[in-house]
């Protein structure tokens, strides 16, 4: 069975190096062990050339075979064949690999060591190479055990990689869902803002045609800004305040001199990142439910300051107070949802009665800037 395109078997350069290093390390241990024969009294030095060469030949043979065995584990994990077919097939392939490795090593022993030392001579006194004799006596079983150990490591590697792929896919899907939700929230804010602004324009058509023209010009600038920055989740506070200033200019025309806006923005927070269009719904809510119901001149106070690792934004009005306002309107509800989506429990929105009257909305964010 051919694996799906995103699950094709591949070995990274790092894995190839680790395979070679692992088998070389085992060969080194084996060579050291054979250099010192523990039989007899103490440690007895032996001729190092033959055992060391054979140990490295065996290790590097398995290093060459290991990628194929890892591929077998990947193929078996992805195969739709029954386990009763896969397991015998893997065992048969393992027997074949074990016999092949045994034969290669037996040939290496025959070449490296003096045949008389190995006790092999033909009828005519010449050397004899008879791997079938060892195979018939199942001397390849040790290599079969090595094959099974590598195969088990391959299964562990495959399960680990598949779990990593699932985690990456889950994270990617989560990011897509979060972005889709933010887009939906932004789409809810923009029509709401546009509806209220057009309603303000229609109320002044007969009373102040010049003011209506200025409002429409400012509105076109705002719409262009919202379209250009639609895919931006965060912007510097200075950009957010510039957008808010255009919106307030429209509202000043609407309220015909009954609106005063005070700003107290600390210099060290101008470049702090804030959610795009985070302040406009708050100010809009203060105008609709606070200033619009205030006796006499309406007042809005906007502040921004840094508090350690937090950025604190506040909007205050001089309206009738919290009891007369809608604390679950579209603007506030969307703002809460966006804050939770972007920052989780690291951000908060608090709505409360202000000292001296009116309502105070406070937004707390993690303080961050562009790198």
Topology overview:
Layout (H helix, E strand, L loop, with lengths): L12 H23 E2 L6 E2 L3 H30 L4 H30 L2 H4 L12 H6 L4 H63 L5 H20 L5 E3 H19 L3 E7 L7 E3 L3 H11 L8 E10 L2 E8 L12 H14 L4 E6 L5 E8 L5
Parallel strand pairs: 4-6
Antiparallel strand pairs: 1-2, 3-5, 6-7, 7-9, 8-9
Describe the structure.
This protein starts with 12 loop residues before the first helix and ends in a 5-residue tail after the last strand. The strands form three sheets. The protein has a five-stranded mixed beta sheet with strand order 4-6-7-9-8, with helices on one face. Strands 1-2 form a two-stranded antiparallel sheet. The protein folds into two domains: 5-170, no CATH class; 204-366, 2-Layer Sandwich (Heat Shock Protein 90). The chain has helices at residues 13-35, 49-78, 83-112, 115-118, 131-136, 141-203, 209-228, 237-255, 279-289, 330-343; strands at residues 36-37, 44-45, 234-236, 259-265, 273-275, 298-307, 310-317, 348-353, 359-366. It is of the alpha+beta class and 371 residues long.
Percent range of helical residues: 55-70%
Q: List low-confidence stretches.
A: 1-6, 40-46, 116-127
Number of helices: 10
SS class: alpha+beta
Count of strand segments: 9
């Amino acid at each position: 069975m051919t694996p799906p395109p995103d699950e094709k078997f591949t070995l990274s350069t790092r894995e190839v190096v680790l395979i070679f290093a692992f088998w070389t390390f085992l060969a080194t241990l084996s060579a050291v062990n054979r250099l010192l024969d523990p039989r007899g009294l103490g440690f007895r030095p032996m001729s190092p050339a033959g055992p060391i060469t054979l140990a490295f030949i065996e290790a590097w043979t398995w290093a060459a075979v290991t990628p194929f065995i890892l591929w077998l584990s990947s193929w078996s994990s992805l195969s739709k064949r029954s386990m009763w077919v896969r397991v015998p097939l893997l065992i048969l392939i393992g027997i074949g690999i074990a016999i092949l490795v045994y034969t290669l090593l037996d040939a290496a022993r025959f070449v490296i060591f003096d045949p008389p030392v190995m006790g092999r001579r033909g009828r005519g006194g010449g050397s004899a190479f008879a791997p079938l004799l060892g195979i018939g006596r199942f001397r390849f079983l040790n290599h079969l055990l090595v094959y099974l150990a590598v195969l088990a490591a391959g299964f562990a590697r495959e399960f680990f990689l598949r779990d990593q792929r699932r985690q990456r896919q889950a994270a990617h899907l989560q990011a897509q869902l979060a972005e889709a939700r933010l887009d939906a929230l932004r789409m809810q804010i923009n029509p709401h803002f546009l509806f209220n602004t057009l309603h303000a324009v229609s109320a002044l058509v007969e009373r102040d045609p010049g003011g209506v023209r200025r409002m429409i010009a400012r509105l076109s600038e705002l719409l262009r800004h919202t379209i250009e920055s639609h895919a931006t989740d965060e912007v510097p506070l200075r950009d957010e305040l510039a957008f808010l200033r255009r919106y307030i200019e429209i509202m000043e025309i609407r309220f015909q001199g009954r609106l005063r806006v005070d700003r107290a923005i600390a210099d060290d927070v101008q470049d702090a990142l804030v959610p795009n269009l985070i302040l406009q719904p708050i100010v809009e809510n203060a105008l609709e439910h606070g200033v619009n119901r205030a006796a006499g001149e309406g007042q809005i106070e906007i502040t921004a300051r840094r508090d350690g690792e937090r950025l604190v934004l506040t909007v205050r009005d001089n309206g009738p107070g919290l009891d007369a306002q809608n604390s679950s309107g579209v603007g506030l509800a969307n703002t809460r949802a966006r804050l939770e989506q972007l920052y989780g429990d690291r951000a908060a929105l608090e709505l409360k009665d202000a000292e001296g009257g009116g309502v105070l909305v406070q937004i707390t964010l993690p303080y961050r800037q562009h790198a």
